[in-house]
C-alpha cells in the first residue's frame, strides 16, 4: 500500500507537469503538422525514453551531483539552449506548405525516419537540465528513502508511459484532418510561430539557474 500511495502521489504531481505547454509540446505540435501522426508519436516515445534517463540517474544519485555542480548544469543547459534555438531557426526559415502537400495522405508522403524522430524527442528532453531538479525534488519529497531502487524505477516507467500516452493523444488530435489542414493553411506563419516559440523556450532555458 505504501508503494501504491507513493506512485499515486508522484503521478498526481507529474500529470500537472506534463500537460503544461513547453518545448516538448511545441516539438510534438510541429512534428504532427509537418510530418504526420506516426513521426509525432515516435518523437513522443523518444521523450519517454529521455524521461527514463532522467529518472534513472536521479535514483542513482547522479542528479544530486548535477544539481550541485554549476559547471555540469551549465554545460547541459547551454547544449539544450543551442539545440532549441537551432530547431527554432530551422523552423522559422522553412517556406510555407505547398497546396499539394495538404492533399497527400500520410501513406503517400515520404515518411520521416523513425530513428530521427526518436532522437529529436530524446535530445529535446534530455538536454533540458530542469527535469534534473524536478525529479530530484519530486523523489526526495514523495518517495521514502528505504523504497527499493527497482520500485522507484517502476515509478519512473509508469511516468514515462504516461508521458508517451499524453503526447500520443496530442499527436492524434493535431493530425485529425480538419485540425491539421487548418494549421497547414497558415503555411509560413505556422513555421514562424513555432520557430519563435522554440527560440523563446531556448531563451527561457538560458535564463534558468540551478537554484530556480
Automatic annotation (TrEMBL):
Keyword Zinc-finger among UniProt keywords: no
Compartmental location: Cell membrane
Pfam families reported for this sequence: LysE
TM helices/strands, residue ranges: 6-29, 41-65, 71-89, 153-174, 189-207
Membrane-topology descriptor: Multi-pass membrane protein
InterPro entries (UniProt xref): LeuE-type
Keywords: Cell membrane, Membrane, Transmembrane, Transmembrane helix
Record PANTHER family: ARGININE EXPORTER PROTEIN ARGO, TRANSPORT PROTEIN
Name of the protein: LysE family transporter
Amino acid at each position: 500500500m505504501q508503494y501504491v500511495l507513493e506512485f499515486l502521489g508522484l503521478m498526481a504531481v507529474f500529470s500537472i507537469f506534463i500537460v503544461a505547454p513547453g518545448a516538448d509540446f511545441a516539438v510534438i505540435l510541429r512534428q504532427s503538422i509537418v510530418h504526420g501522426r506516426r513521426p509525432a508519436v515516435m518523437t513522443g516515445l523518444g521523450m519517454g525514453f529521455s524521461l527514463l534517463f532522467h529518472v534513472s540517474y536521479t535514483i542513482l544519485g547522479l542528479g544530486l551531483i548535477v544539481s550541485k555542480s554549476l559547471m555540469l548544469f551549465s554545460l547541459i543547459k547551454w547544449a539544450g539552449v543551442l539545440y532549441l534555438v537551432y530547431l527554432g531557426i530551422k523552423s522559422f526559415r522553412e517556406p510555407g506548405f505547398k497546396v499539394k502537400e495538404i492533399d497527400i495522405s500520410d501513406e503517400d508522403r515520404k515518411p520521416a525516419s523513425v530513428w530521427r524522430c526518436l532522437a529529436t524527442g530524446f535530445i529535446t528532453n534530455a538536454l533540458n537540465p530542469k527535469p534534473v531538479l524536478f525529479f530530484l525534488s519530486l523523489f526526495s519529497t514523495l518517495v521514502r528513502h528505504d523504497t527499493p531502487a527497482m520500485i522507484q524505477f517502476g515509478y519512473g516507467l509508469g511516468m514515462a508511459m504516461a508521458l508517451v500516452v499524453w503526447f500520443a493523444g496530442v499527436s492524434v488530435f493535431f493530425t485529425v484532418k480538419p485540425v491539421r489542414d487548418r494549421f497547414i493553411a497558415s503555411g509560413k506563419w505556422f513555421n514562424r510561430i513555432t520557430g519563435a516559440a522554440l527560440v523563446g523556450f531556448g531563451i527561457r532555458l538560458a535564463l534558468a539557474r540551478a537554484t530556480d
